[in-house]
Amino acid sequence: MSNTTTVWITGDQCSLNNTALMAADKKTSCILMVESISRGNQIRYHKKKLVLIYSAMRHFASLLRSEGWKVDYYEESPSFEDAVQRHINLHSPERFLWMQQSEFGADRRLASIIDGIPHELTPHCNFLSSSEDFEELHSTPDSRVTMDRFYRQMRLKTKLLLNVNKQPEGGAWSYDKENREPPGKNMQARPVRKFPPDEITQSVIKMVEHNFPDHPGDTNNWIYAVTREDALLSAEDFFENRLDEFGPHQDAMVYGEPFLNHSVLSPYINICLLHPLELCQEAERRYRRGQARLSSVEGFIRQVIGWREFIWRVYWRMMPEYARRNELEARENLPEFFWTGDTSMRCLNDAINTTIKYAYSHHIIRLMILGNFALIAGLDTLQTNNWFASMYIDGYDWVMVPNVIGMTLHADGGYVGTKPYAASANYIKKMSNYCKQCAFNSQTSTENDSCPFNTLYWDFLIRNEDRFARNARMFMTMRNLASKSDQWRNDITERASQLRKSGFQ
């Protein structure tokens, strides 16, 4: 029997629950999978991110074959176009079928490649919300919906952490206020489970080094899962060893400790090796059994079905214009040390070198060290977004645009967050041990050895004083700024200018 349908599976869709796969007839379908070198070069993706995607693809292709599917797999193809044309010449499909792409515009680009052959799209399998869920919360097309309100809707939809009366377990929807403890003697962190590269991954590592030699990061010290089986082991490791301790110190930062009690499951969720609902349901079971505290379990669930789903919906509602927003008119070039980690600021040195080594850092490092610096320094929004998209193993366009443009840089004018996440060294000193051995003084703002975070924080407020004066959540901060003398303001502005001229060193 001929293969009349081609099921095209891309690198972030490696799941047997892929809806295109589930809609296909195994007897009359052929799976198409392509390692596109040109796509891997679209931006300078971290080498470990490329290894994860290509290795997961090769392992998934092997699984599909063992399940009885016919798989047409193209290793190291120059482009999608080249592989697809070869596939069409070989199999003459009557139609193409693929699951919705996560990146805006990608479905249109794939359709342009298949030479007019009919195609059908199926819904993405790894999200729980619908556009209707999101839209029904908007009173007008231009209104804004908070993550908190959306999260409550998702809790009701999934029935997670609800009591018999459909009220939140413990009486509160969020326990975020209980999850902000700084690092201290009572913080315990167990190492994450690591997965040495098997023969397939070793082959992919060689391929990535050959085809992407100038990309950031390296392929040494591989630790990540590349199959669903190992991703499930990684999840079990988190639930057994770190979930209970995750909550209280989820905002803590410790020099030389990239993972602490974080799950490190986002790389697997975002390529469909793990499903968000199965993870949240398991976290809830741990709470029901008395194996993890409510604040930790709720915090984990809020990240997965709250924040992750929220940014997915913001992305698809607001694109493509959203990615170009720059409400604060940030234009400074990204400093060179973002690529090398060569800076005397101890917090940034650790955050960047951790990212270079692992293609990962936990969320508070991304927001309050890397993102906070980019915000207060006025770094260009597109350059900053591209850096995050390049460097993170779990970073995709739908992830990074709302997180960076919206949450981190406040470049969307307050759609995602009503106030900018700007902070001085006071926050970093409170929530980390970075400042203890830093070359800069975390207590001053205008001296030559003052922490750049302090100088740039106040300079950021001065630059945006008129704009933030209208923000009710910024009232106390702006009143504090208004009490400063003209001389002090001039000193701040002058030192900030010097920092920019020196590349923020």
The stretches of 5 or more residues where confidence is low (pLDDT under 50) are none
Tally the helices: what do you get?
Answer: 23
**Alpha-carbon distance between the termini?**
66 Å
Q: Largest sheet, order of strands side by side?
A: 3-2-1-4-5
Please characterize this protein's 3D structure.
It is a single chain. The chain has 505 residues and is mainly alpha-helical. The chain folds into 3 domains: 5-122, HUPs (Rossmann fold, 3-Layer(aba) Sandwich); 131-192 and 242-318, Serine Threonine Protein Phosphatase 5, Tetratricopeptide repeat, CATH 1.25.40.80; 337-501, DNA Cyclobutane Dipyrimidine Photolyase, subunit A, domain 3 (Orthogonal Bundle), CATH 1.10.579. The protein contains 23 helices and 5 strands. It has helices spanning 19-23, 37-40, 47-66, 80-91, 106-113, 131-135, 147-158, 199-211, 228-241, 243-246, 266-269, 276-288, 294-318, 337-340, 346-358, 363-377, 381-391, 397-408, 425-431, 452-463, 465-468, 475-482, 486-501, and strands spanning 5-8, 29-36, 70-77, 95-99, 119-122. Strands 3-2-1-4-5 form a 5-stranded parallel beta sheet, sandwiched between helices. The longest helix is centred in the middle third of the chain and has 25 residues, at 294-318.
